[in-house]
Structures are given as structure tokens and as C-alpha cells.
Design brief:
The chain contains 9 helices and 10 strands. With about 270 residues, it is α/β, with parallel strands linked by helices. It has a single domain, classed as 3-Layer(aba) Sandwich (Rossmann fold), CATH 3.40.50. The strands form 2 sheets. Strands 6-7-8-3-9-10 form a 6-stranded mixed beta sheet. The protein has a 4-stranded antiparallel beta sheet with strand order 2-1-4-5, with no helix packed on it. Helix 4 packs across helix 5, helix 4 packs parallel to helix 6 and helix 6 runs parallel beside helix 7. The longest helix is centred in the N-terminal third of the chain and has 20 residues. It is globular and about 50 Å long.
């Protein structure tokens, strides 16, 4: 006889499969993100502004994807929609097998805590807590016992090479150390997807390179699917794919040489 939890999981999968068939979206285990017909409209004093118009995106499991483009094209907004921090005006957005566009605020928060690791340009660490406590926050928010949360957080401090800085507060850390702590916090819940919005934008070139190398290592060792927004073409070319967001559409940059030549056009 099937347990209640197993029956509920089966019903959830069946409902999700039915919904995906109805929407025309083909989901499989190899696809982590599938976006179709995405539109995001803002109302301005001059009328409606369409940021995206019929945008599509597919990201397969294990990909390390860079999205580049000029400021104001909507790169951060796109990440916010993928991470259930913002809602599209139209279109279908599946992320980690979930139609994030249909989540209510409580469901969206639970989805982010379970499936998404998010890193911003600024670290957003809580200044009154230690680095270790900051890393443990997502687990504590999920209801994990404090001792277990701190133990897991300490393992992640070691993962990012900062076990000796666990008791320091954010203000006592360098910019690179702060971003490494933010990365540990993003991954402490073992999410399936890492979304990074200019994760090296506030760092000098050398430190930015080291933080990106850490992202690459953790991406591989933990089997992540990662989407990075960046202005740094030197880092973007190291990703498996690079997409340019322009005019509300995504286009792939296929020539590595041309990527580097266009580096100055992304400010």
C-alpha cells in the first residue's frame, strides 16, 4: 500500500506532467530551465515598456551558462524571474521542474530555499552575525536544528577555504572573503540551480578571477546547473555557453574570439 507522502508526490508529478503537456513544454531530467514566450512589461509615464518579448531559453543539467549584455537590457530581471523573485507578464517559466510563474509568495519562498542558490554583486551578509551564522541562515529558515545547521555551515566554510574565518563578522572580512561566504550561504541547502548576478562585479581583477575559479570548482564538484550574469567577458568565455541579451531576445555567442573583442561593449 502506498504511503500518504508517496501518493502525494506521485499526484504532484502527474499534475506537473499534465500541466507541461498542456503548455507545450517538454520537460525531462536533463532540462533544468525551460522558458517559452516570456514577456515582462513595465508601466512607465510614457506608457508600457516591454523588457522581454517572446523570449525563450533552455538550460540543460550541468551547464555553466553566462548571460551578457548592456546595462538595462534586463539581465537581472531575467534571473529574478528564474529564481521566483519576480513574475513574468506572460509566458511559461519552468525552473527545476516547477512552473515558477504560478507560485504564490509562500510557495515561491519555499521553492527558492529548496532549489535555488542565489549570489548577488553585493554580498548582503547580515553584519551582526558571524560568517558561520550567515551561512547557516537558509538551513535555520527551513527549520533545521541549530546544531545541525551550524555543522553543515562549517563544512561549507571549509569548502570555500574560510574555516579559519568562521567566527569573524562580515565587516572583518575582505571583499573576496565576503563573496566566498555569500557563495557558501547560497549552496548550503544543496540547491539544484545556482543563479549569480554579477558575482565578481565589486571585486578587483585578481580577486574576481579567484572567486570565479571557486564557482567553477563548486559547480563541477556538486553537480550544479549555473547561470551567471556578468559584464566580464574574460569570465564569460570560460563558461560552457554565452548568451547575449539584447532587444528582449537571447542570442548565442559562438565565436570565442569575437567574445573577447566585444568585451568593451557591455557597459
Amino acid at each position: 500500500m502506498q504511503s500518504p507522502s508517496a501518493a502525494a508526490a506521485q499526484a504532484s508529478r502527474a499534475a506537473r506532467d499534465q500541466e507541461s503537456r498542456a503548455s507545450g513544454i517538454n520537460l525531462n531530467q536533463a532540462t533544468v530551465i525551460r522558458v517559452q514566450g516570456l514577456r515582462k512589461t513595465y508601466q512607465t509615464a510614457r506608457g508600457a515598456l516591454d523588457l522581454f518579448e517572446d523570449l525563450s531559453l533552455v538550460v540543460e543539467a550541468g551547464e555553466l551558462l553566462a548571460i551578457v549584455g548592456q546595462s538595462g537590457t534586463g539581465k537581472s530581471t531575467l534571473l529574478h524571474i528564474l529564481g521566483a523573485l519576480d513574475a513574468p507578464s506572460a509566458g511559461t517559466v519552468y525552473c527545476a521542474s516547477t512552473n515558477v510563474a504560478k507560485l504564490n509568495p509562500r510557495e515561491a519562498a519555499a521553492f527558492r530555499n529548496r532549489e535555488i542558490g542565489y549570489v548577488w554583486q553585493f554580498h548582503y551578509l547580515l553584519p551582526e552575525f558571524t560568517a558561520l551564522e550567515n551561512v547557516a541562515m537558509p538551513l535555520l529558515a527551513r527549520g533545521v536544528a541549530k546544531a545541525e545547521a551550524l555543522r553543515t555551515a562549517n563544512e561549507w566554510m571549509s569548502e570555500v577555504g574560510l574555516e579559519d574565518r568562521a567566527d569573524h563578522r562580515p565587516g572583518e572580512l575582505s571583499g573576496g572573503e565576503q563573496q566566498r561566504v555569500a557563495l557558501a550561504r547560497a549552496l548550503v541547502s544543496k540547491p539544484r540551480l545556482l543563479l549569480a548576478d554579477e558575482p565578481t562585479g565589486d571585486l578587483d581583477g585578481v580577486t574576481a578571477g579567484k572567486v570565479f575559479e571557486l564557482i567553477e570548482r563548486l559547480h563541477k564538484s556538486h553537480g550544479l546547473t549555473s547561470v551567471l550574469v556578468t559584464h566580464n567577458m574574460d569570465l564569460a568565455v570560460r563558461c560552457k555557453r554565452t548568451l547575449r541579451l539584447q532587444g528582449g531576445k537571447l542570442t548565442e555567442i559562438t565565436d570565442v574570439g569575437s567574445k573577447s573583442l566585444q568585451a568593451g561593449n557591455l557597459s
